[in-house]
Amino acid sequence: MRRAIAAADGWMPFDQFMAQALYHPGLGYYANERPKFGSQDADGSDFVTAPELSGLFGQALAAQVAQALQVTGTTEVWEFGAGSGALALQLLEALGDQVQRYCIVDLSGTLRARQQLRLARFADKVHWVTALPATLQAVVVGNEVLDAMPVQLLARVNGVWFERGVAWSGQVPDGAFVWQDRPTALRPPCDIDGPHDYLTEIHPQAESFIRTLADRLTQGAAFFLDYGFPEAEFYHPQRNTGTVMCHYQHRADPDPLALVGLKDITAHVNFSGIALAGQDAGLNVLGYTSQARFLMNCGLLSKMQHATPMEQAQALKLITEHEMGELFKVVAFGAGPEWEPMGFTQGDRSHTL
Questions:
Q1: How far are the Cα atoms of 66, 129, 199, 234 from residue 86, in angstroms, in the given order?
Q2: Which of 160, 211, 321, 351 is a plausible cystine mate for 326, CB 3.0–4.6 Å?
Q3: What backbone phi and psi angles, to 5 degrees, belong to 180?
């Protein structure tokens, strides 16, 4: 990273820094051998995602995917950022013969190896791919994939906007990565009320990903689950320190310049920008709601009735407001005629985008 900064005249935009910290071959967080996913720090993990938390997550999502496969007349599922492979396993088990081909797109070679072990009994269906085909007919899923896409940082200081990047200060080994601002013409997508200093993110990479997907998806649907807000909440005047967050050994901190490559770096999703990118590229926005409402619409509560008390307690974390239920949202896109996915039959919030 120090060499890359030096080669860039001493300053690296944060999105490039985040990309290197997460994905540099062999060294980046998602490319090294350290465990990532787990329920406690004793197993060496850093955070837990919904599929690892409860198998009922995948079962509920499978009901929505099954409907989407039937309505759109497709037989393939594509998952982006499959992590430990837990969600893929849950979907494959629940969907059975409805899925003829399950494709995983994952930048991490180490995670692909773990996924292959976990999904070995579905080896005839599961394929790992590195690029989208020219045309795609499938149902696409992505759980906590948008938040891991690099963001650019914008800082308003004394009324002037800067792009915040990273520099190296001092001599090796006693130096450190430090923040450094440079003037920029970039702006958030909406005005930020007030004269106060303000730090935030913009999401060109995630929005570009959605546009690329829209260009290739000729038949099917896409469902993305992640933490974030609509634009009015994301760029609220009081959200003046941004949303970049790091995860290490089940502890959260806001400093991506420490333990580089050893901890996760994420940013919340601006779902208005994601929805607009898809819509402008020709997709229909089929729905937007909280994870809690989505999973309940997909039958999670009825599935919990047959679960053990421990399983019920874990599943409750998916939908309770102070856990994952409200912070996490779901947005859906469709290619072709519009239809109503079951996950949005009650509580759709598309009007807030």
A1: 18, 18, 35, 30
A2: 321
A3: -150, 130
pTM of the model: 0.96
Average confidence score pLDDT of the chain: 95
At residue 124, φ and ψ (nearest 5 deg) are -75, -20
Distance in angstroms (rounded) separating the CA atoms of residues 129 and 180: 37
Segment 68-116, tens digit of pLDDT:
999 999 999 999 999 999 999 999 999 999 999 999 998 877 888 899 9
- Token code pair at residue 330: 């779901």
Identify which of 248, 254, 268 has the alpha carbon closest to the alpha carbon of residue 29. Answer: 248
User: Judging by beta carbons within 10 Å of its beta carbon (0-12, 13-18, 19+), is residue 128 exposed, middle or buried?
Assistant: middle
Question: Which sign, positive or negative, has the C-alpha torsion 33, 34, 36, 42?
Answer: positive
Q: Please check whether residue 275 is in contact with residue 285, taking contact to mean a CB–CB distance below 8 angstroms.
A: yes
Mean pLDDT over 11-27 rounds to 96
Partners of 245 in the β-ladder? 266
Is the Cβ–Cβ distance between 36 and 144 less than 8 Å?
Answer: no
CB neighbours of 210 closer than 8 A, spacing ≥ 6?
A: 274, 277, 278, 281, 333
Structure tokens at 262: 């050893």
Its sign, for the CA torsion 211, 217, 219, 223, is: negative
